[in-house]
Design brief:
Largest sheet: 7 strands, mixed
Organism: Paeniglutamicibacter sulfureus
Radius of gyration: 22 Å
Number of helices: 15
Subunit structure: Homodimer.
Pathway: Cofactor biosynthesis; biotin biosynthesis; 7,8-diaminononanoate from 8-amino-7-oxononanoate (SAM route): step 1/1
Strand order of the largest sheet: 4-14-13-12-9-5-6
Distance between the termini: 38 Å
GO molecular function: adenosylmethionine-8-amino-7-oxononanoate transaminase activity
Family: Belongs to the class-III pyridoxal-phosphate-dependent aminotransferase family. BioA subfamily.
Number of strands: 18
Length: 457
């Protein structure tokens, strides 16, 4: 990596040129960026700002997607090989090997009877397609009044319009867009649960029983209006890195079956091993009717997502006439370059083993992440500003009593060699699976010391 690259970024005034020109996620136009990325390799980013250059471990895995690290030789080779063939072709009326192979892989990995695949170009779009499919399913069955969805409070499913509608309508990021949420029905958030080091889920049985009564009552009240139930299984990401008991998923499965609703699991953030199970729903041994995946699907290289459904759902749309078509078709649907890299990424995750076996590469990687994160973040528990420290699979969370002073904590962490993106009262990491114990110790030390410096001991 050229030592001149960071210097060049500063000389070019990249940060100043960015400000007011580009919007960044969930930020005002004049917010700009705090650092310029001048290189990336393995689990590290090279950042530049007015103070100089910084080599940092990416604790975010580029928003939870770059599970194999940057410049991974296997994924690089897959991308180069596909570019040498063709990088894109329309999917309307055409197909190609990378798309077919990817769909076959996903079906083989998926829980339950998920057997049909729609390739989308982002996680939010896969949720849009899932919701659209549920509406068409109910219409095909003669249930034209079923136009609404039940969702969990605290949930997040994307930033596009229908996806916003099933996000938390009050405490979520889309409270300003009230109209979409008014159409939906919201179940209370299940009570918190924690996975012990012995692999057992702990939650308050009385609170869970109370939640079950409320969820069943609400679903029964709106049964003739509901098309489906959607949730992030086990871990609500943007809703606060909140974990709840697997039993809640079993209850939602029972409610869906009782009222002939489709159960939709949003595994975009949780899929492909992040929580310590291949898919988070497997903690409950429950399979959905529809499932959305994304983020880690391509190892963070390209935007790609997928919606999977069961034969029961797909066949309801069967037969002649316009009602048989799933009415969605992105321009870059089934992009060959993204599909080729996704195939290589899934191969790295599973190797030649059964994807759920103890010898599948992802399982050893995530198990090692979990153990190292528990050790690395444990010192934060003695800080008076810290409310809780929790770890699930490849997710480590330090929750404060008060909101994080984001800009200050971020800079303090960068000075110590870690890139993080705090929000609300949370400082968390979801690092690449290929981090070493030493990398994770650096992350842990950076987070703990940054919190202590900015929020006090």
């Amino acid at each position: 990596m050229s030592a001149a690259a960071p210097q060049l970024a500063r000389q070019d005034g990249l940060l100043a040129r960015d400000s007011g020109l580009l919007w960044h996620p969930y930020a005002s136009l004049d917010a700009g960026a705090h650092y310029a990325v001048t290189g990336a390799d393995g689990v590290r980013l090279m950042l530049a700002d007015e103070s100089g250059t910084h080599e940092v471990i990416d604790g975010m895995a580029s928003w939870w997607s770059m599970v194999h690290g940057y410049r991974n030789p296997v994924l690089d080779a897959a991308a180069h090989a596909q570019i040498d063939r063709f990088s894109h072709v329309m999917f309307g009326g055409l197909t190609h090997a990378p798309a077919v192979q990817l769909a076959e892989r996903l079906v083989a990995m998926a829980p339950g009877e998920l057997a049909h695949v729609f390739l989308a170009d982002s996680g939010s779009i896969s949720v849009e397609v899932a919701l659209k499919l549920a509406l068409q399913y109910q219409h095909a069955r003669g249930h034209d009044t079923r136009r609404r969805f039940a969702a969990l409070r605290g949930g997040y499913h994307g930033d596009t319009f229908a996806a916003m509608g099933v996000c938390d309508p009050v405490d979520g990021m889309h409270a300003a867009f009230a109209q979409p949420g008014r159409e939906q029905v919201f179940l209370p958030r299940p009570p918190a649960a924690r996975l012990t080091t012995e692999g057992q889920w702990e939650s308050d049985a009385a609170e869970l029983a109370e939640w079950e009564v409320a969820a069943r009552k609400i679903a029964a009240a709106y049964m003739d209006e509901l098309a489906g139930i959607i949730c992030e299984p086990i871990l609500q990401g943007a809703g606060g890195m909140f974990t709840y008991a697997p039993k809640a998923l079993r209850i939602l499965r029972e409610i869906a079956d009782e009222h002939d609703l489709l159960l939709i699991f949003d595994e975009i953030a949780t899929g492909f091993g992040r929580t310590g199970a291949l898919f988070a729903s497997e903690w409950a041994q429950v399979a959905p009717d529809v499932m959305c995946v994304g983020k880690a699907l391509t190892g963070g290289y390209l935007s790609l997502a997928a919606m999977l459904c069961t034969p029961k759902v797909a066949r309801a749309l069967g037969g002649p006439g316009p009602g048989s078509a799933l009415l969605h078709g992105p321009t870059f649907m089934g992009n060959p370059l993204a599909c080729a890299v996704a195939n290589a990424s899934l191969e790295l995750l599973t190797g030649s083993a059964d994807p759920r076996s103890a010898s599948a590469p992802w399982r050893g990687q995530v198990s090692a992440l979990e153990a190292a994160l528990r050790e690395a973040l444990a010192p934060a528990r003695v800080l008076s500003c810290v409310k809780e420290v929790r770890v699930l699979g490849g997710v480590g969370v330090i929750q404060l009593h008060d909101p994080v002073r984001v800009a200050e904590v971020t800079k303090a962490a960068v000075r110590r060699g870690a890139w993080v993106r705090p929000f609300r009262d949370l400082l968390y990491v979801m690092p690449p699976y290929v981090c070493t114990p030493g990398d994770l110790q650096v992350l842990g030390d950076a987070l703990v010391l940054a919190v202590a410096e900015i929020h006090g001991n």
